[in-house]
Amino acid sequence: MLNIRKVMVPTAFYTHAGELIRYAAGLAKAFQAELMVVNIINVRDIETLQRASSYGTIISDEQYVKLTEDERRQEIANLLEGVDFPADKVRIIFRIGHPADALMQLAVEENVDMIVMGIRDRSDFMHTFTGSVADRLFRRSPVTIVSFRDEKNAEHLRKRLKL
Fold it and tell me: Per-residue pLDDT tens for 58-69?
C-alpha cells in the first residue's frame, strides 16, 4: 500500500478551485493524510508594486502581502466549507515567489508525498507562449502529481479528441 502522509493542493482560485480542493481532500481522506492547501503570492506582483511605489503609492510590500494573505485565507476558508475532511488535518500555507519554483521548494521542504494540480482554462495559442505552472511542475517535480480535470475542462478535452 502507498504511504501517502501529505497531500499538497496549490490553488490560484480559478473557476474550478472548489472542485480541485474537494478532490484533493477526498484523496487525502482516503489515505488518512494531511491536506496542505497552498497559495503562492507571485513575486512579480510585489515587483510591480515596488515599481508603482516610485509614483507615490501608499501601500508597502508588507501591507500588500498581509492584505493579500488575509483575502486569500478567507477565500480558502470559503472553498473548504462543506468539504468532508477533518479541520485539524488541514494546513493553509502561503509563500512568496515564482509559483512553480516556490511550490517545488515547499513540496521538498515539507516531504510532500502527492501534489494534486488542476489545469487552467486557456487557449492552445496562449499556452504556446506562456506555459503553465502545472506544466513546469509535471516536468521537474520529484513528487508524484495527480492531474485533476474539472468537468468543463474534461468535456473540452473530449471534444478535441472527438469522443
Answer: 777 788 889 999
Per domain, the residue ranges of the chain are 6-43+73-161
| Identity of residue 15 | T
C-alpha cell at 70: 488575509
Three-class SS state of 23:
helix
The candidate with the shortest Cα–Cα distance to 156, out of 125, 120, 126, is 120
Tens-digit pLDDT profile for residues 16-25: 889 999 999 9
Architecture of domain 6-43+73-161: 3-Layer(aba) Sandwich (3.40)
At 153, list the grid cell.
Answer: 475542462
CB 9 within 8 A of CB 36: yes
pLDDT surpassing 70 at residue 113: yes
Q: For residue 6, list its beta bridge partners.
A: 34
| Beta strands 34-42; 114-118: pairing state | unpaired
pTM of the model: 0.82
Task: Compute the C-alpha angle 82/14/50, nearest 5°.
Answer: 120
CA-wise closest residue to 13 among 35, 42, 34, 33 = 42
